[in-house]
Write a structure and sequence with these properties.
Number of helices of chain A: 11
Largest sheet of chain A: 6 strands, mixed, barrel
Structural class of chain A: alpha+beta
Number of helices of chain C: 7
Shape of chain A: elongated
Low-confidence stretches of chain A: none
Strand content of chain C: 25-35%
Structural class of chain C: alpha/beta
Shape of chain C: globular
Chains: A alpha+beta (402), B alpha+beta (434), C alpha/beta (232)
Strand order of the largest sheet of chain C: 6-7-8-3-9-10
Order of helices and strands of chain C: EEEHEEHEHHHEHEHEE
Distance between the termini of chain A: 31 Å
Radius of gyration of chain C: 18 Å
Number of strands of chain A: 12
Oligomer: heterotrimer
Order of helices and strands of chain A: HHEHEEEHEEEHEEEEHEHHHHH
Radius of gyration of chain A: 32 Å
Mean pLDDT of chain A: 90
Low-confidence stretches of chain C: 221-232
Mean pLDDT of chain C: 84
Chain lengths: 402, 434, 232
Amino acid sequence: MEFGPILRAMWRNKLGVLLVTLQVAFTMTIIVNAVFIINERSRLMVRPSGLDEANLFYLQNIGFSADYNESAVVREDLDFLRRYPGIVNATVTNAIPVSGSGSSSALSLEPDDTAPGTFAAYYEVDEQALDTMGLELIAGENFSAAEITERGVGEFFNPSRGIVSLALAETLFPQDPHAALGQTVYRNNSPLQITGIVRRLQAPWPDTSFVEQSILLPMNSLNTFAMYLVRTEPGQRDRLMVEIEEALATSRTDRIIREVMSLEETRRQTYMVDSAMSTVLFAVIVILIFITSMGIVGLTVFGINRRRKQIGTRRALGATRTAVVRYFLLENFLITGVGVILGALLTISFNIFLVQSFDMPRIDWYYTPLGMLALLLAGQLAVLGPSGNAARIPPAIATRSV
Amino acid sequence: MFLYYLRLSALSYRRNPVLSSLMVLAVAIGVGAYMVVYTLNYFMGGDPIPQKSSVLYHLQIDSGNPDDTFEPPSQLTWLDATALLNADNNYRQTASSKFNAVVEPEGDGARPFSINGRGNFGDFFPMFDAHFLYGGGWDRGADEGNQQVIVLSRELNDRLFGGVNSVGQTVNLQGNRFEITGVLDNWQPFPKFYDVNNGPFDSIEDAFVPWNLITSLPLSRGGNTNCWKAPVGTGLQAFLNSECVWIQYWIELPSTQDRENYLDFLDNYTRQQQELGRLLRPVNNGLFNVNQWLVREEVLPQETQILAALAAMLLAVCLLNTVGLLLSKFLGKSGEIGLRQALGAHKGSLFTQHLVEAGFIGLIGGLLGLGVAKLGLWGIEGLIGDLMTTDWMQLNPVLITVTLLLSVGSTIVAGLYPIWRACNVNPAIHLKTQ
Amino acid sequence: MLTMQNVSKVFRTEVVETHALRDFSLTVAEGEFITITGPSGCGKTTFLNIAGLLETYTSGQYLLDGQDVSRLNDFQRARLRNQKIGFIFQSFNLMPDLNLFDNIDVPLRYRGMKAAERRQRIESALDSVGLLSRKKHIPSQLSGGQQQRVAIARALVGEPRFLLADEPTGNLDSNTAFGVMELLQEINDRGTTIIMVTHDKSLAGKSTRNIHILDGRIQQCTDDTHLVRIPA
């Protein structure tokens, strides 16, 4: 092939080559890093919470009158919900997984409350929580109705039993997480026995370092503010959300019902920034591919128009049409090739910048070569059309004097 | 002469409509995309109260766990906040925290509804330049006397009183009557610097009441709460006496001397507390002005910073594109340039002519870029509108000026080399072959 | 070696038909040096383009070395051009971005020759036109006459059977033109058939035969058959 002459000819047109090379390098840097970020975000977004999200919704119940009897209202509401046609089960809780708002505390293996412990989100629930959330109990047993304790306003109460997520058991007992069953840990200085392990239960905050570490506690805090988590039969959720809100809101005048929301909507809102980021980056990629290929097509067309006479002469000297197309493909391959090598360096540098400035993960090794390959291919595609036109330049143009 | 050059630019545009439009498009997309991200960073990372941001300080007292290595907490404990509030100085200052409450509107049929509230001191309003539609805030006496007074947001006043002047009337909050002293106008600091722990881009609260009422009534406290150690004992007082942090504390210190004095005072206070067995970490007090505080709390989202870097590279790609296209265009005009030189144009005037032409393309690109930016912001609003207030996502005159300057300026810079090349061709060659 | 029988070329547009060449017949024998003269626009270049396989014709027959070229596809025509025909153009048509060596290399590349042989041929071709010392220069660093000599070297490097020259001296001053003509005659002496289009009557006299074309037809043939030289 004619590498030598093409390279020497390119050297005479350094600036044009440099322009395309830099464009390719920047384009590759943006696209590869954007794809990486999109993939990272979607990896976060598809992590399961452990709940049967499709059939769950929740609502907030706030009492406000002086003689509001929360204990009685909650019992009455749960009873109503559990008997309502289409509802599978319901529970009361202090926090909703994935929602972004909840409580956590530190667990330690020693009764010393200043020792750094293992963080875990806690859910104060009743014995129907496992069934309502749709959690998979892999060891131990569920709470019994009798052990659910009510905590009055301002009281401090530390339950003595809890059900942990497998991930929390692994962190507490790395050697054998299943041996966590029956062990005692300390929370707020008081002992707590692990009586069950569920396969998976996420904390409410998706961006926390301990997102998979949670504990269920058999209690209900009476603080005028209660959340009901409701599981419906498949396909019934949207209808029931409307019906239940109306039924509960009109059943009493000493409380209000607010923020009736499905778990799917909760997830959408919680991951809104991630999905917005992905959408924006996707738009950037599309725009960039458009701009860069327009640029390459434009410069190729310009280069061909400038060299019409030369191309005709080449044809006169015996170049076949294929040879003309090959010339431009090869020329583009060389320019883009330099571009993607520069792009690989820039891509990795930019990733290092992201890692250092934003604690982002390191880019996987295969992204860079794949990006290089994709851009080389895109470059070839971009010049295919114009070079086809170049091949149709008639050789007789060589004898024209202007 | 400038107008003549401008007319030549328009003619030149029409002579190469495809090439010229490609350039305009490249500039428009590059600048438009950059301005979308620039706008986000401009507001989200901007100074929410430029006239006072250097004299308003948030306090940092390191009340954290002495056995751990976390950063000092961003909020204060009740013990520290009340001690500082009782200190003998005349600086304007306010502790503040969130609460939730249910409002029972007057009249039959109106259902009660819940609101976001804030407990704060009367100084809060003049400190933060909150503007009132009706009435005003309250004085120190109301704070100290636990008076049940309230300032409503314009929105809540619209909902409860149909927008009329409600000063002097009362609102029933969680079974307690509050007298309205004022109604805020459309006041929305952005970012909501006075409480970045609970959604820095959220709307302001619906109602404001004296801070002491949160604990004395009490009201249902809300917002971020962090405890490194469980409260000892039971009841509200046990919580208040604990090392849990949940209070924002701002003070207005007009001069650097005041700042130094106050920092000394804080250090003395910390040492006293250490003697009493509290604040066991090394003395690490801080006073952060508004902008320092926004940086320390990392208010500007990572996402917009990453996007800023990507958008800058996107702009670079578009400008490289423009350099290439301008080079094609101007070199294609060598004949005309040669002719003009033959007719007496000197290099300087040719240079100016083509600078104007590049600027002309940049200007059209910039105007189109404004549309692109508008479209982009509108898209972003659609993507995250459920998450935060989006009224601020507008191109104000400053941003419009920045857009046009950026597009004209960058196109001229992109054009410098092509112009230089085009103006340095030997006129004789081109005249002969024509 | 070249026979045209009643070759016509018609350019059609929506409104007019232009006959660039009408019933053109010509036979060229091996070793001839033919000049073609005629006013501008009479069909000289069209003839040359057809003869050089740069253009197709509308009707008639054209045999090159006994081969009917109308049946050839684009690929085969390109091969034939590359192997049998050398071109010299009025405006030289050198590649401005390539140095002299690479310029002369162009037709050899399309022939798929080994690098060593190409180098040897290019250098001897450059040497034969007296420009070997300047092989790394680019065309714009050369004078017009030098550029045309490079073009001639390029035309000859593939050792073609015949050479088509389109006003090769048209862009040159008379002194330089004279040198180029001498070079062409030398080439012809070595046995290469040459067809040269020119409007310079004085140059036409140096050929073995002159053909005058007017309005697409041969008007006049200086039939100097006795001048046809048989290659030694």
